[in-house]
């Protein structure tokens, strides 16, 4: 059996055991997970471990963030940042899928994945702040607060979602139920398309695409600010919902 046949079989196995599409943003659902599936199958054939894929994801994201902070905005710079961040995001999806192919992940692997994500979402907006300060001709200095607020919102959202997930698992375990927070489903499961489009503004993948607008700094400032406001609104509404859910456990 050839290597390509092995990879194809791995892709088919993953296609029948994907996370639920419910609640997933459009980019994550239709772009990132399918790309991550192909990367996971390739890593599986190569004999890579999930932690190795996580490390590569971290390197790609770090490279994109460094380019964002250190290089003057332009077309080449914008493409490099967007591609590196998108590749890091796809590999972030691939490590979990690779773990499923290998029979399940580990607590250490899950910890590493979460820590890398936490560092990524915090440092990305710090890099935007540095770029704006160094290279952008902002009409008002107060606009420097935008990436600062965005970083706080995304770091807080990530913590709130992670904590909510862990509390669900603990409660399920105490009740003697399955502690799996994100069940695997048939890939043909019906999930509302409109819902995935509505949460697209808070999809990290959209932020990767928005980085292409670094080639036109004034446009980037406007779009980035609008995405920040959407994330802030989602976080505030989400906190109220998550608190009610946690209080009811």
UniProtKB/TrEMBL annotation:
<feature type="transmembrane region" description="Helical">
    <location>
        <begin position="193"/>
        <end position="215"/>
    </location>
</feature>
<keyword id="KW-0808">Transferase</keyword>
<dbReference type="InterPro" id="IPR048254">
    <property type="entry name" value="CDP_ALCOHOL_P_TRANSF_CS"/>
</dbReference>
<dbReference type="Pfam" id="PF01066">
    <property type="entry name" value="CDP-OH_P_transf"/>
</dbReference>
<keyword id="KW-0472">Membrane</keyword>
<dbReference type="InterPro" id="IPR000462">
    <property type="entry name" value="CDP-OH_P_trans"/>
</dbReference>
<protein>
    <submittedName>
        <fullName>CDP-alcohol phosphatidyltransferase family protein</fullName>
    </submittedName>
</protein>
<comment type="similarity">
    <text>Belongs to the CDP-alcohol phosphatidyltransferase class-I family.</text>
</comment>
<feature type="transmembrane region" description="Helical">
    <location>
        <begin position="221"/>
        <end position="243"/>
    </location>
</feature>
<feature type="transmembrane region" description="Helical">
    <location>
        <begin position="142"/>
        <end position="161"/>
    </location>
</feature>
<keyword id="KW-1133">Transmembrane helix</keyword>
<keyword id="KW-0812">Transmembrane</keyword>
<dbReference type="InterPro" id="IPR043130">
    <property type="entry name" value="CDP-OH_PTrfase_TM_dom"/>
</dbReference>
<feature type="transmembrane region" description="Helical">
    <location>
        <begin position="65"/>
        <end position="91"/>
    </location>
</feature>
